[in-house]
Every structure is written in C-alpha cells, then in structure tokens.
TrEMBL record:
Positions of the UniProt region annotated as Disordered: 81-115
Pfam families: DUF3140
Transmembrane segments: none
InterPro entries: DUF3140
Superkingdom field: Bacteria
Record-given protein name: DUF3140 domain-containing protein
Length: 115
C-alpha cells in the first residue's frame, strides 16, 4: 500500500473524519453488515460507498490507497452537497436525505463537534 503524507492528503483525512461522524460500529450496524463486512440477509444490499467508508475507517492514514482518497473526497462532496443551505430542522424531517447521509457515515441529527 502506498504511503500518502502530503499536506493535501492530511487535509482530506481531517475533513473526511469531520464529515463522517458515525463510528465504524454505528455505520456497520446501519448498513446491516457483519464485522467482516458480509451483508446480513435483507431486502437490499448495503450501500457500496458506505462499505468503502467502513474500510477507510479501519485504516491508518499511512495505509490509504489512491482509491481511498477518491472515496474520501466523494463522501465529503456528498455530505456537503446534501447539507449545504439546509436548516437543521429540515434535515431532521427529511428521512430520505438523512438515510442517504447515514449510508456514507454522516448522521445529520448528531450534534456537531466543537473545535
């Protein structure tokens, strides 16, 4: 695996971990997969992007691949697009949007971390 330590990767890593506010356990349960990422029986399979997020959450920064960096940017883009200019009250009542966000590890109802 390639080691990526550039300032851009550091910033991407930090931003990814800001927008992904669910733990790997919470995301695994939400997606309905076993700890080994095997789908549990159900009507539909887990979101592929969510599975990629789970994989990244289990890695160290130094173990990221080029594909991981692409996934991380995509997750950031999805979360920012879905939450920008949306009042918190609207996000809390839009179950469809909340489910899309939770499929990539972002629970819009979770209080934001203070810096």
């Amino acid at each position: 695996m390639a080691t990526h330590t550039s300032p851009q990767v550091e910033a991407l890593w930090d931003r990814f971990h800001e927008v992904v506010n669910m733990t790997s356990r919470e995301l695994r349960e939400w997606l309905g997969v076993e700890p080994d990422l095997t789908p549990q029986p159900g009507p539909s399979g887990p979101a592929p992007l969510g599975l990629a997020v789970l994989s990244i959450l289990g890695k160290r920064r130094s173990d990221l691949t080029g594909d991981d960096l692409i996934v991380m940017q995509k997750v950031i883009d999805v979360v920012e697009e879905e939450t920008s200019a949306q009042p918190r009250e609207e996000l809390s009542t839009d179950e469809r949007r909340r489910h899309r966000l939770m499929n990539v590890g972002h629970d819009p109802l979770r209080p934001q971390q203070e810096e």
